[in-house]
Amino acid sequence: MHAECWRETIAVGGQLNSIDDDNIPRIEALVKHHKQSKVAHVILASLYTAKNDPRALNTLRAITMFEPLNFEIRLRIASYLRKRGMDQEASMEIQKAAKLLQAKIKEGLCDPSVAAELWQRLGVDSVNSEFEADVPRGMEYLRKALKINPKLASALHNQAYGYLRSGEPDKAIDVLQTVVRIDPRHKAANGALNSLLGQRAQHPDL
Known about the structure:
There is one protein chain. By secondary structure, the protein is mainly alpha-helical. Helix content is 75%, strand content 0%. The relative contact order is 0.06.
């Protein structure tokens, strides 16, 4: 990006905590003249999103045209789609992100600790999706994260939720007990574990 474009983009970006309509045409002009400016596209998408303008999605997707291997942009697109109830479309973006991550790992371009965090992010998104087909994929992503780092409490907690959604409460209890051993102060895990143990005590035959 040219220095002038960079300075103008940062100047407008610094004003995003008080978004006004005057910023939109300024960034649109930057995007028009600097079509491969990721920063300008991201800021414009943020402005569009704040205004509930559907052009946000196409603005984010435009980045994938000149940065097809951009993992974070795939996640931004998926998040945008999820918030608008477009879970099946979001799922496709998550799967693309998973393929990108797998390729980076295979090529040795991703540190294991970073890979674990990224698999966790993909898994958490997927097991919490309203699109049922996402749940088994999310569980696989979480397994990949936990294979690298077995003590990722958030990955374990969401794995327990995935087991619940899959109708396996006993496995969920086992995983939640692991979370509590790792982090005794994990409020959500403690609450879920106590609830499940209470249900099992009341209905031992289930």
